[in-house]
Amino acid sequence: MENELPFGVRAELKSLPKDLADIVGAHIWAAGHLIDEDPDLAFRHAEAARRRAGRLPIVREAAAETAYAAGEYAIALREFRAIRRMSGGDDLLPVIADCERALGRHRDALAVLAELDPATRNIELRIECLLVEAGIRDDLGQRAEALRLLKAAIGRKIGAPGAQARLRYAYADLLEQQGDLEGAREWFTSAAALDRHADLDVADRIASIDGVVLPDFAEDEDDLEEDEDLDEEDEDLEEDDELEEDDELEDDEDDSDEEDQEEDLDEQDGDSDESLEDEEDDQAEDDDATPVAEDEAADDSLEPTDDEGDERE
């Protein structure tokens, strides 16, 4: 997992003790992998990393981006402002302004955008700021001004194809909202031509205008995953049943062994009783024989010996 983290992240984590660095790195890794599919869970991972190492810029960045993706705009705004204080520059102005906009502070958002250096040559940054401003103007009821800003930027034909695709997409979206479906379809199609990596849901938007329902392959994948999970559960249950059967067989075998042992013990007890009876009978016979022998010995002792007879004579 550690090797999957970008070099810059690993470099910052080296300032932490090894055990703590492993924990923080694991949370950052999880946040990065979950931000698209489960932003809320990604945000919780980033917050866990922030509680442990909140002074690292990369940790604050992860917390800010996941909070923004999860719709936690107040937290995202706080973190983005903290990062800007640490690193400086204007790169975060668009997201800071968008957070202000999401919190309903449109005038503050416009004030943030006004902080952009007018002499900057970062075309991508200027386009991002313009997209945010167009959204703010539309929220304030100034849709005509929003359309003007976007149309002027499109006409200048500046920026990378991806940025130009986003300008056309935003323009088409505003046209659709005001009921110009034909114009919206035209500009969505123009955006699709420049969206080389299919980052935008242009196909879905065009299909919606045309009244076409596209198949949701994501749901099919979810169903397949659920089926796989059910199959795994069934296999686990079958294994449990087999284990229970094995346990029952073992219990039966144990019971049978115990019965055999009891029978052996009974037989041994019987044999022992019989041997005891035999020993008692033998002892009784010996006892009966002993007095006779003693009597005979006594009789023999009463008979005079030859010497005694001679003396009497």
Q: How would you explain this protein's 3D organization?
A:
The protein is mostly helical. The protein contains 14 helices and no strands. Helix 8 (123-139) runs parallel beside helix 10.
Q: Which geometry do the CA atoms define?
A: globular
Give the helix tally: 14
Which regions have little confidence, pLDDT < 50, spanning 5+ residues?
A: 289-313
Total number of strands: 0
Strands, helices and their partners?
Elements: H1 7-13, H2 18-34, H3 39-53, H4 57-69, H5 73-87, H6 93-102, H7 106-113, H8 123-139, H9 143-156, H10 161-177, H11 181-194, H12 202-210, H13 217-302, H14 306-312
Helix pairs in contact: 2-3, 3-4, 4-5, 5-6, 6-7, 6-8, 7-8, 8-9, 8-10, 9-10, 10-11, 11-12
Brief write-up:
This protein has 313 residues and is mainly α. The chain has helices at residues 7-13, 18-34, 39-53, 57-69, 73-87, 93-102, 106-113, 123-139, 143-156, 161-177, 181-194, 202-210, 217-302, 306-312.
List the keywords.
313 residues; mainly alpha
